[in-house]
Fold this sequence. Notes:
The structure is a single chain. Helix content is 73%, strand content 0%. The chain has one domain. It has helices at residues 2-57, 60-69. It is built from 2 helices and no strands.
Amino acid sequence: MARVNLILILIALACALSAVSANHRARKLFTELEAVQKRMRDLDVEWGQLQLEQSTLAAHVRVEKAAREKLGMKPPAPGQIISVDPVAEN
């Protein structure tokens, strides 16, 4: 009878340790999940800011102003413009 009790106590102890271990792993994974979700939200915000910055930097008026001021470019005279028709592929 004493052996049966000892075996049952060891089984109960193993089950308890297993439950504690599983609970700990679940909490650890949940913490990691929250950290990854926060990183995802931060990256979404950064992506939005970069898209806004790109649209600002690529604005036609800004590019034209930079071409005139920094590169000394000017629009071509009407006689300098040549139209090129696309070649049809067979």
